[in-house]
C-alpha cells in the first residue's frame, strides 16, 4: 500500500539537520512511500540541493511551505491560537484533508497533542487521546499508555486506553490478541485504588485478552504486550526508566575506566556490550503514538538522531498500513455498552471521519496541489 507521511521538518532539537536525512533514509527503505516535507522552504531547500538526492528521490517528496515554527518551550495556548501556519499545524492539517496518511513531529509534545486533538478530533466513543510508546522487554517490547496526556482518569478512560493499546500492538506486532495488563501495586484483584479496581472489572468484562494486574517490573519482563495506566503514573514510570538506564550506562563506563585491568576487561567484553547496546538501543523504539484521534499522529523524541527519527517514520507508516484509527473505532462498537451502557449508531467504522473507511486513510493518489508524482511511482 502506498503511504504518504506529512513530516514536521522544523520540530525537535535539531530540526532539518536530522529530520531530512532521516526522511531520505526512510524513503530509500520504503520504495512505495512518499513524503510531504513541511517547513520553511528557504530553510529546507539548501538541504535537498544535492543532485543525487533529487535524481534518486525527487519524485517521492515535495516541500510544503509553512511560515511559522512552534518552539520546544512555547506555551500550548500560543501554539494553538497564534501559529496556524506552523509546520506542526500544517502537517496535521494535511492528514485532516486527506493529503497524508499520517503526521510525524519531534516538536513540543503539549502543543502537538493540543493541535492534533483540535484539528483531527477524537474518534467516536473515545473521550481522551492517549500517548503510547514502546519499551524494550525481555520478550521483545511492551506498549505502555498513557504517558502523560491524562493525569486524572476514570475507569472508563483506562478501558479505552486498553482498547487503543491492544489495537496498536496488534497492528504493529501483527498479533491477533495481544495481552493487556493493568498497572497496579500488586497482582491481586483487591489491590489498588477504587478507579483501578473498577477499571479491572471493566477490562475483565471486555473481549480483550486481559491478563490482570501487573506491577512495574512486569513492563520489562514482557509479562503482557500492553500495559495500561493513567498519565501521571505512566509519565513517572517512563522518566524513572530513563533515569535508571542512564545510571547503568554511566556506571558501566566508570567501572570499565578505573584501571588498566578494567580497560582490558572492557576490550574483551566489547562484543557482548555492543550486542547488549543494540538490543536495548532506545533509538529503535522511538515514536510515541497519539491514540484515539481521527487520524494518525506520531511524536518523535525531541532529541532524536537520524536513526531514531527514521524509526518514528516507520512506526507511523505501519500504523497507516494497518488502518489503525478504523480498527480502534470498530472495537469500540463492541465495547461501548461497557463504557456507557448506551450503544449508539454514531460509532461505526463508516463514521470515523463522517464518510467512509477510506476517509481516514486516503487513496494512494493523494490530492496535493504541489505533489504530482509520475505514473508508476507508487
Core attributes:
single chain, 378 residues, alpha/beta, 11-stranded mixed β-sheet, globular, disordered C terminus
Structural features, described:
By secondary structure, the protein is of the alpha/beta class. Helix content is 45%, strand content 15%. The chain is built from 13 helices and eleven strands. Strands 3-2-1-4-11-10-5-6-9-7-8 form an eleven-stranded mixed beta sheet, with helices on both faces. Strand 1, helix 1 and strand 2 form a beta-alpha-beta unit. Helix 4 packs across helix 6. The C terminus is likely disordered.
Structural topology:
Blueprint: E1 3-8, H1 16-29, E2 33-39, H2 41-44, H3 51-57, E3 61-65, H4 76-82, H5 87-97, E4 102-105, H6 109-120, E5 130-137, E6 140-145, H7 155-173, E7 179-183, H8 194-205, E8 209-214, H9 216-221, E9 226-228, H10 231-256, H11 260-279, E10 288-291, E11 296-299, H12 306-321, H13 324-339
Parallel strand pairs: 1-2, 1-4, 2-3, 4-11, 6-9, 7-8, 7-9
Antiparallel strand pairs: 5-6, 5-10, 10-11
Helix pairs in contact: 1-12, 4-6, 5-6, 7-8, 7-13
Helix content: 40-55%
Q: Count of helices?
A: 13
- Major sheet: 11 strands, mixed
Question: Which parts are unreliable, with pLDDT below 50 for 5 consecutive residues or more?
Answer: 341-351, 353-378
Shape: globular
Counting helices, strands and paired strands, the structural category is alpha/beta
Instruction: Please state the oligomeric state of the protein chains shown.
Output: single chain
Give the N-to-C terminal Cα separation.
8 Å
Number of distinct beta strands: 11
* Strand fraction: 15-25%
Cα-based radius of gyration, to the nearest Å? 21 Å
Roughly what is the average pLDDT, rounded to an integer? Answer: 86
Strand order of the largest sheet: 3-2-1-4-11-10-5-6-9-7-8
Q: Helix and strand string, N-terminal first?
A: EHEHHEHHEHEEHEHEHEHHEEHH
